[in-house]
Design goal:
The complex is a heterodimer of chains A (749) and B (690). Chain A is an alpha+beta fold. Chain A contains 16 helices and 30 strands. In chain A, the strands form 6 sheets. In chain A, strands 1-2-13-12-11-10-30 form a 7-stranded mixed beta sheet. Chain A has a 7-stranded antiparallel beta sheet with strand order 4-3-7-6-5-8-9, sandwiched between helices. In chain A, helix 2 packs antiparallel against helix 6 and helix 5 packs across helix 6. Among the domains of chain B are: 143 residues, Dna Topoisomerase Vi A Subunit, Chain: A, domain 2 (3-Layer(aba) Sandwich), CATH 3.40.1360; 114 residues, 2-Layer Sandwich (Dna Ligase, domain 1), CATH 3.30.1490. Chain B is built from 17 helices and 33 strands. Classes of the chains: A alpha+beta (749), B alpha+beta (690). Chains A and B meet through helix 2, helix 6, helix 7, helix 11 and strand 16 of A and helix 4, helix 8, strand 20 and helix 13 of B.
Chain lengths: 749, 690
């Protein structure tokens, strides 16, 4: 990996050799295939054991439940050889950590038995609560590999509980910031460093246990790797690690060569910076050329005055995270995937902030947003290939509402937690399946949330519900997963201190794809001074849970409603107060009027969507005959066009050379290529913006589906085929900006 | 005369082991008839009766016990063809079973599959969302009622349940294990109003913390209730008067009545029989610590017996749901004789992402399979003999095996068929050795303190090649191909009673000055409960054994360790810290964190009468059947190798490797440098030659 600054001052993070090098990639396997497979399997087993060691010892729910950690093995020069399948942000960022470490310490200063702790985002950390511990693994006096663990800590000091404060204007205010430091030197714990860390956190016990888990995890890696080296030799083991990377890179490049060349684009937004409720843009321009994929984020907003920025480690991790589960599906995740990618972002933009910009909310802010926009753009590219279209998807759960709560618990102990319940939310639909309801963070394949009973055992709270809501997933031919939410009231304590950090209150960032709608927005509130305990006690608590709009019947609760902004600085809760928050649904895929009527009927019966939604959006009334449904759908489609509808024009028969998603096609146009609606209506040359020839309809706030809010600086617009009324895109746009040119096709493979 | 029978009704074969008064055993095997699970069993019993010159009726009369493992519940669950079931839960938490704490989304996916977003999916629901009824009520973490139960909500649910023809109902409310009053009241109303409906109550079945897992376990229990009742009725009808017992997931047996109350306990009984058989055999051979290795066609199960007791676990994922259930802790991997070998990207030899299963099976079966499997490699290498029909009837096709390996592995890699076959075998064997190490090391044990017992269709042919890399000695039991059926004979009545505490203890006091009375009180009640359950299943007082255990963890950790209760909190915490340091290293011991006693568990065992495993007093006299060319991995070439008839070998016989010992359905393949000794139960003990 290298940093290059080119003439126009745009910083490139070229992640490994991004030009495909046939000599390097085509080199024959140095190890015989049987030994390769055996050693590969053993390296994978190390990752697995590392994760178990960490999870068993750790106490923070963010590690044990949200699996917000990762562990991996790296080559001696710091490339990912083999990583665990937890939150991939971390492993993706670790090469950046290792590069910084090797810049800070000379080879003579890195010795056997050392372990380095790092959490400063300007030294590769994703953000400062994500602490990494990396260990060089030696054989015969030389480094043969590195092992590393990174995980989110409940508190690393700073201005507020949980260390993620919207008040901070400089990184120095955010908490303890460690450049690479030796926590363990020559196998001996440096007590001074250990005490420094525990001295700066509000939760020394929890952080202490987590760090012990880190140490245990690296020890497992060290011991197991030594066993493998004893058996097979260091050369064989390092060859296998190199080969693993080459293998993944070859697979990635092969896949890229199957795909057309062109430019794809997606833009996502963050509402509220902690200071003011204004909009920041994350712009991903995906340039695919041959077997290289370049992500240019230069048109993103300038860096913010507050914690919603991110630095290189988070940027790299997020691009990796947005790409791997789709384009890298089935390819072993390691540096080979990164090798085929380039990331461009000039210093000073929000995705590549410069000192002393704060970055406390990087993961749930910028990192999450980069990941979503990346996945969205990559999905457009994948939608052009018949073989790979199955991996093309809408956005999964585009936000994470981080609610930190604490003070003392009902047992009188110091208590801080980040409620990870908000992980649960709608998965993005894909070209082949509906989004799933119990989806978590897109890049965390194995998340989970704690039982309500576990939350209540340790925490001073009483939960009132934890539910999914109907009509909350993005509508589409494939429907997005439903949104969930919860409400709770303090229990057994007189007060709690809280902060909340989220986005997506006024931007439906769980985007749909190809005419699929976004899922609903987040919503968070406190209802002050209610009679909830009395109502619960007498069994009168009205909780119809019928609608997302009012899961708890506010009128009967008594009390005063206080809507929370996306970011809310410390606020207190007293007995009788109720916190209620609901999260985003997943994006839909394709025009809802193309959804199989039987699937719509099944959704109504299962209570996933209302009968009203079924008839108004999907044109389906349960029990009606197919002919009536067709008729209603034709009518709905026509009424989307000009008042009264336009008769479909007689379009020429098409001979598509490719499909672009479910309903757009690519056709030959003289020497070039053109985009058309499946009905035959041409939407111009494939180099131009097809949206310029589509029918654009901005949607006024009053016409938005329930649960979707759009910030004053933004607008929701839909793009229709002017002939047949088929919905091809639903987009969140900045007011006054031209339609996003999201497809510029250069050539088919 | 009297005898005891153990039966294992598997997917392909029904195995029966009959043990006579003197401990002598006889083995019967027949094909399982899909749709009529008892047909094969009756065939076996008729054959056993004929061997003893009596009628089936007389044979049944003479049975002290017939214990069996069944897949009836497992299959009904997997295929989702059990009862129409409803769930009654706390209002506001109706979606708990659908949210699954998000654990369902990628449950069951391999590490490779986890990289693929398009493979994420949720399980087919056990009950429709419209049959989940939320009632107003609430209990808090201390068991205090903070919301009264609205009985009209229950009444409305009952009405709906009646109208919709529901056959079974699960009741699972928040914190019911701390205060079961509301659940009990709902059960009472249900039983009164809907007498024919099967009812399962979470606070009775699994009184443990964790509403999702408790609900899933209770719901699946209710779901299986009616179908298991039907099964046990059929069993009693077909085997009139026979004292039937059923094998459960924890390696114990239970009466049909008990199975009717907790049918979910049958769900994972598959692997438990083999582990119990190893425990039994280990006892007779003086092996306190055993690694059990059951390698079959599609999967391999590895379990542990430590100090004479099978290692258990209390939580498991099965079919994408998560259950709280005491079960024999078996690690299963999807690799076995049927695992398919293939080459990816022109250079990478991989084994086992897919399995050929029983159908079409390996290429050498000639049943339509064309892809090379581990079994095909074994045949090419001479480990299996083409002239030795597998399972007594299936003729193996050597040419087909060679062709499949040539086409799919050897040619793409540019190596010989022999090299390819040897590579396939080495990959699988190394993976198995890794598995044995991981299973022991992960739990804090040193594999060298264990003896390996290898069985199952492919265990005996593979284990000798790698077993001694991990352990000092291994045994291929004489009952290798019917080991689960032997386990059914060897199983005692098992009961478990448990109570979630949770009790928090400060670090500084290390338990001193804390009153152990609540723990003692809990154990007193649990003892009584377990004792009663044993009595109900006909266990005599002098045969009842109770074991008291506490789940302990550092405050707020999620993983707890099981520690034996010695009547003293201080000792408990000392024992816990020792176990913890053994498993995670002393570096991982926290200095300040307090302790949490999570659950008190009483495991009850009711010893059942059974003869000592009969030993054989005969000596020597093995019959050499001839020889064949078998690949020797150390020489890298084929070598003429003696083949012995396994059934002819008697105790005391010693034979050196390389050597093939052939049985009607399995083969043991000793490699050079190994010494086989026939033990007094006619098993083959394998060590390094001195």
């Amino acid at each position: 990996m290298s940093r290059e600054v080119n003439g126009d001052d745009r910083e490139h993070f070229v992640l490994g050799p991004s030009q495909s090098d046939e000599e390097r990639l085509g080199a024959p396997l140095k190890v015989d295939p049987v030994t390769f497979e055996i050693v590969r399997h053993k390296l994978e087993a190390i990752n697995h054991e590392q994760a178990i060691a960490l999870k068993d010892v750790s106490v923070s729910p963010i590690v044990t439940a949200a699996s917000d950690f990762n562990n991996a093995l790296y080559t001696a020069d710091g490339r990912i050889a083999c990583m665990g399948p937890q939150v991939v942000f971390h492993s993706g960022a670790m090469p950046v950590v290792l590069r910084h470490l090797m810049e800070q310490f000379s080879p003579e200063e890195i010795n056997e038995g050392d372990m380095f702790v790092v959490n400063d985002p300007y030294f590769g950390a994703v953000h400062h609560p994500d602490v990494s511990l990396v260990a060089p693994l030696f054989h015969a006096g030389a480094i043969v590999a590195w092992s590393g663990v990174a995980a989110h800590q409940v508190d690393m000091g700073g201005m507020s509980v949980g260390s993620v404060s919207g008040q901070a204007r400089e990184k120095y205010q955010e908490g303890l910031m460690m450049p690479p430091m030796k926590l363990i030197e020559g196998g001996v714990m440096r007590k001074d460093v250990w005490r420094l860390i525990l001295n700066m956190t509000r939760q020394p016990e929890m952080v202490g246990l987590d760090l012990r888990g880190f140490i245990a995890s690296n020890i497992v890696a060290r011991d197991r790797l030594a066993e493998i080296i004893d058996r097979y030799g260091a050369d064989v083991v390092t060859d296998v690690m190199d080969e693993l990377i080459r293998y993944s890179e070859r697979r990635m490049r092969e896949r890229l060569r199957q795909l057309p060349d062109g430019e794809f684009r997606s833009r996502s937004f963050i509402d509220h910076d902690g200071l003011e409720n204004r909009i920041y843009r994350t712009d991903v321009r995906l340039i695919k050329s041959g077997d290289v994929l370049r992500f240019d984020l230069s048109d993103s907003s300038p860096q913010a005055p507050t914690y919603i920025n991110c630095t290189e480690g988070c940027l790299v991790g997020a691009v990796f995270g947005g790409t791997a589960p789709l384009l890298g599906a089935g390819v072993p995740w390691n540096h080979g995937i990164l090798n085929a990618l380039e990331v461009v972002a000039p210093p000073g933009v929000i995705v590549n902030a410069v000192r002393p910009a704060p970055t406390g909310a990087a993961t749930i802010g910028q990192g999450w947003t980069i990941m979503s926009a990346t996945a969205h753009a990559v999905s457009k590219l994948l939608a052009l290939s018949d073989e790979l279209r199955r991996h093309s998807a809408a956005i999964t759960h585009g936000t994470f509402a981080a609610l930190f709560t604490g003070d003392r618990n009902q047992h009188g102990e110091p208590y801080t937690t980040q409620l990870i319940d908000a992980q649960i939310g709608g998965g993005g639909a894909s070209s082949i399946a509906d989004g799933i309801d119990q989806s978590g963070c897109f890049v965390a394949p194995r998340p989970h949330i704690a039982n309500v009973e576990s939350n209540e055992l340790h925490g001073p709270m009483l939960f009132l519900y934890r539910s999914f809501f109907p009509d909350s997933g993005g509508d589409g031919a494939r429907r997005g997963g439903r949104a969930a939410g919860t409400a709770w009231t303090p229990h057994g304590v007189e007060r709690l201190r809280n902060t909340v950090s989220a986005h997506g209150i006024e931007v439906p960032v769980s985007y749909g794809q190809f005419g699929g709608w976004p899922g609903v927005c987040n919503r968070q509130m406190v209802i002050r001074g209610t009679a909830v305990r009395e109502l619960l006690g007498s069994g009168e608590l009205a909780m119809p849970l019928a609608t997302l709009a009012e899961p708890l019947e506010l009128a009967s609760l008594g009390g005063e409603l206080e809507l929370l902004a996306a970011k809310q600085d410390e606020f207190e809760l007293a007995p009788g107060d109720v916190v209620q928050y609901t999260w985003q649904g997943g994006g839909g895929y394709g025009d809802p009027l193309d959804r199989d009527p039987a699937a719509v009927a099944a959704d109504v019966e299962a209570g996933l969507i209302s009968a009203t939604r079924a008839s108004e959006v999907y044109g389906v009334v349960v029990g009606e005959a197919a002919a009536q449904i067709d008729e209603r759908r034709a009518h709905l489609r026509a009424s989307r066009l000009a008042p009264g509808g336009v008769a479909p024009a007689a379009n020429a028969e098409l001979e598509p050379v490719a499909r672009y998603g479910p309903a757009l096609v690519i056709v030959r146009d003289g020497a070039g290529l053109a985009v058309a609606c499946g009905c035959g209506h041409r939407l111009g040359s494939a180099a131009e913006n097809w949206k310029d020839r589509a029918l654009r309809q901005p949607l006024p706030a009053a016409d938005l589906p329930a649960g979707i809010l759009v910030h004053a600086e933004l607008e929701l617009a839909r793009y229709l085929c002017p002939s047949c009324g088929r919905l091809h895109a639903v987009e969140v746009e900045e007011r006054g900006e031209p339609p996003l040119h999201d497809l510029k096709l250069i050539s088919l493979p | 005369m009297s005898w005891t029978a153990g039966v294992d009704i598997g997917g392909t074969f029904t195995d029966t082991v009959v043990m006579d008064d003197d401990g002598a055993i006889a083995v019967y095997k027949s094909l399982t008839t899909p749709g009529n699970l008892l047909a094969g069993l009756l065939d076996n019993l008729r054959a056993a009766a004929a061997d003893r010159d009596c009628s089936l009726e007389e044979f049944l009369d003479g049975l002290v016990r017939i214990a069996h493992g069944t897949t009836a519940a497992t299959n009904a669950y997997i295929e989702r063809r059990a009862a129409k079931v409803a769930l009654i839960t706390t209002r506001g938490f109706e979606d708990v079973i659908f949210m699954q704490r998000m654990l369902g989304m990628t449950a069951g996916l391999s590490t490779a599959e986890l990289t693929d977003y398009s493979l994420r999916s949720v399980p087919e629901p056990i009950c429709d969302r419209s049959l989940v009824f939320g009632v107003r009520e609430r209990v808090d973490y201390e068991g205090e009622e903070v919301g009264r139960l609205r009985e009209e909500d229950v009444a409305a649910a009952i009405e709906s349940i009646r109208e919709q023809g529901v056959e079974a109902v699960a009741i699972s409310l928040l914190w019911s294990f701390k205060n079961p009053d509301h659940e009990r009241r709902i059960a009472e109303l249900l039983r009164r109003e809907l007498p024919g409906v099967y009812v399962s109550v979470s606070s009775e079945l699994v009184p443990r913390l964790g509403e999702y897992e408790r609900t899933a376990t209770t719901l699946i229990n209710a779901y299986l209730g009616p179908i298991v009742a039907e099964y046990t009725r059929t069993l009693t009808r077909e085997l009139p008067g026979a004292p039937v017992m059923l094998l459960d997931s924890s390696g114990g047996v239970m009466t049909p009545e008990q199975a009717g109350e907790a049918p979910v306990r049958l769900l994972l009984s598959g692997p438990s029989g083999g582990v119990t058989a190893c425990q039994y055999l280990g006892q007779a051979l003086g092996h306190g610590n055993v690694i059990t290795f059951d390698m079959g066609g599609t999967s391999t199960d590895v379990g542990l017996v430590v100090e004479g007791e099978p290692v258990q676990r209390h939580e498991t994922e099965f079919g994408k749901y998560h259950l709280l259930l005491p079960m024999v802790d078996v690690r299963a991997i999807g690799a076995g004789g049927g695992s398919i070998a293939y080459v990816e990207d022109g250079a990478y030899l991989q084994v086992g992402r897919e399995s050929a299963g029983a159908r079409p099976g390996p290429a050498c079966y000639g049943l339509g399979g064309t892809k090379p499997t581990v079994t095909d490699a074994d045949l090419v290498l001479g480990i299996l003999g083409a002239d030795n029909p597998l399972a007594g009837s299936l003729q193996l096709d050597l040419a087909a095996a060679g062709e499949a390996i040539e086409r799919h592995v050897a040619a793409p890699l540019g190596i010989s068929v022999t090299e390819a076959a040897a590579g396939i075998k080495r990959i699988v064997d190394t993976r198995m050795a890794d598995l044995l190490r991981t299973v022991t090391l992960e739990r804090g044990y040193d594999p060298r303190d264990f003896t390996l017992h290898a069985y199952g269709g492919a265990g005996p042919s593979h284990a000798p090649a790698f077993g001694l890399e991990v352990v000092e000695s291994m045994v291929i039991p004489f009952t290798q191909s019917v080991h689960s059926a032997l386990g059914a004979i060897a199983s005692d009545v098992a009961v478990a009673a448990e109570r979630a505490l949770p009790l928090r203890l400060e670090r500084a006091t290390l338990g001193s000055g804390v009153d152990p009375a609540p723990v003692e009180r809990a154990f007193g009640e649990l003892d009584e409960q377990a004792d009663r359950a044993l009595a109900e299943q006909g266990v005599r007082v002098e045969d009842r054994y109770l074991d008291r255990l506490v789940e302990v963890r550092f405050a707020r950790q999620t993983k707890a360790l099981l520690v034996r209760w010695r009547g003293d909190l201080g000792a408990l915490l000392t024992d816990f810290q020792r176990l913890y340091a053994e498993r995670y290293g002393s570096e991982a011991l926290p200095e300040r964190a307090g302790f949490e006693l999570v659950t008190c568990i009483v495991r009850g065992r009711g010893r059942l009468l059974r003869p000592e495993l009969g030993s054989d007093d005969g000596r020597g006299g093995g019959v050499r059947l001839g020889s064949r060319e078998v690949f020797d991995p150390t020489l890298g070439e084929f070598r003429d190798t003696d083949v012995y008839d396994g059934l002819s070998l008697r105790p005391g016989e010693e034979l050196g490797g390389p050597l093939i010992i052939q049985y009607p359905t399995t083969t043991i393949a000793l490699v050079s440098g190994q010494l086989a000794t026939v033990d007094r139960f006619r098993g083959i003990e394998i060590r390094r030659a001195a």
